[in-house]
Structures are given as structure tokens and as C-alpha cells.
Design brief:
This protein is of the alpha/beta class. The chain folds into two domains: about 120 residues, 3-Layer(aba) Sandwich (Rossmann fold), CATH 3.40.50.2300; about 90 residues, Arc Repressor Mutant, subunit A. The protein is about 40% helix and about 20% strand.
């Protein structure tokens, strides 16, 4: 899942980003409304965690423009004011959810995860191919009933491939969906991650390379 945090309180923004990354999300951060607006419309994020009172472009304007754009990006609006009138106003602007400060971090994570599930075309809660079963919510993967231990990036790549349901997913798409903006676009990290993922999943292979195009889940004949 790709998340953008737009928050001018740097310590808070960095803390949110660190926490979400520990949960396996790819997170970018903007500290003002102008840079947040630019990033939100250059990269397709699943969720934007958006502070309402931002320097530069106001959070209300960013929210309204995202809602009007027709993108699948979901907006979780943060604000220090938590009155009913404020929540109603934020939702009317196009926010998908609203969380007043201060908040419990576990609640923030749960809300981001719920919005992320709505940001992409509907996928089953449990992803399967052959004897591989992946539960994104619980972050578990088993093959033939045996647990497979995966890193956050390996798990993210696997989920993206399974959600594609046999369609080819390019290295560029995987880099955009699983890694953040600080990743070198010319890196071989996707190829290396797929290689280690294949090894951990075992035989018969479940991921095949489509030369010049990317990767897809393989059809395994039992």
C-alpha cells in the first residue's frame, strides 16, 4: 500500500511515517500544502493522511481537488478540532474518514488499512493461487499449510502479484506500489526481491517472468 502523509508538524509526520512503514506500507511525507498537493497528483497513492490546517495550500483545498479528480485515492483528514461540525464539514469536502488529534496510533493504522482496501478494485480478503494462501489483513502467508516467513517488501510484492490475478505487473508498477519516493528508480531491488520471494515460496514456481514486461503468477498444474 502506498501512503502520503501531509502534515506540517514534522515530528508527528515523521512518527506517523515510521509507524506505517513498520506495518509494511510505502510512505512518502510532505510538510506543507503546496508540496503535498504536488505529490498527491504526481503519484497515485492508495491513501493520503491529510492535516487540515496546512501552511501554503490548505488541506481543505487538497481534499476537495482529490475528490473531484475521480482518482481512487482515499483521504483520511486529521485536525486538532474534533467537533461534530468540523467532522461534517471535512466529510462534505470529500474526505473518506476524519480523525481528530490527539489520536491513538493503532486507530490511525486501522483506518488507513480500511481506506486502503477501498482504494483499489475489490479483491478477496484472502488471496490464493495453487496451494499458496495469503491473508493481507493478518500479514500471513502459507504454502501447503506451512507458514512462509516474508519481509515487508516481499509480502507487498506478493500481494500485488496475487491481486493482479494472472495479469502482468511491471517492475515499475511494483516499485511504485511497494516502495516509497526515496527509492532509486534505476535500482534492481524489484528483481532481487522477486528472486528471494521465489526461493522462499519453493517449487513448483508460482511467479514467472514475462521478458520485457514484468511478472505474473504462474498457473500450476497439480
Amino acid at each position: 500500500m502506498r501512503v502520503l502523509v501531509v502534515e506540517d508538524e514534522r515530528n508527528l509526520a515523521d512518527a506517523i511515517a515510521r509507524g506505517l512503514r513498520k506495518r509494511g506500507m510505502a510512505v512518502d511525507v510532505a510538510y506543507d500544502g503546496d508540496s503535498g498537493h504536488e505529490m498527491a497528483f504526481v503519484t497515485r497513492y492508495d491513501v493520503v493522511v491529510l492535516d487540515r490546517d496546512l501552511p501554503g495550500r490548505h488541506g481543505d483545498q487538497i481534499c476537495a481537488e482529490l475528490a473531484a479528480s475521480g482518482e481512487l485515492t482515499r483521504v483520511l483528514m486529521l485536525t486538532a478540532s474534533g467537533t461534530v461540525a468540523d467532522r461534517v464539514e471535512g466529510l462534505q469536502l470529500g474526505a473518506d474518514d476524519y480523525l481528530p488529534k490527539p489520536f491513538a496510533f493503532d486507530e490511525l493504522v486501522a483506518r488507513v488499512q480500511a481506506l486502503g482496501r477501498r482504494a483499489t478494485p475489490a479483491a478477496p480478503p484472502v488471496l490464493e493461487v495453487a496451494d499458496l494462501v495469503v491473508d493481507p489483513a493478518r500479514r500471513t502467508a502459507t504454502r501447503g499449510g506451512v507458514p512462509v516467513e516474508l519481509t515487508n517488501k516481499e509480502f507487498g510484492v506478493l500481494c500485488e502479484l496475487l491481486k493482479a490475478r494472472g495479469a502482468v505487473v511491471s517492475s515499475e508498477e511494483l516499485l511504485e506500489r511497494v516502495w516509497d519516493a526515496n527509492t532509486d528508480p534505476f535500482t534492481t531491488i524489484v528483481r532481487v526481491t522477486v528472486m528471494t520471494l521465489r526461493r522462499k515460496l519453493g517449487d513448483p514456481p508460482l511467479i514467472e517472468t514475462v521478458v520485457g514486461a514484468g511478472y505474473r503468477t504462474a498457473e500450476v498444474v497439480q
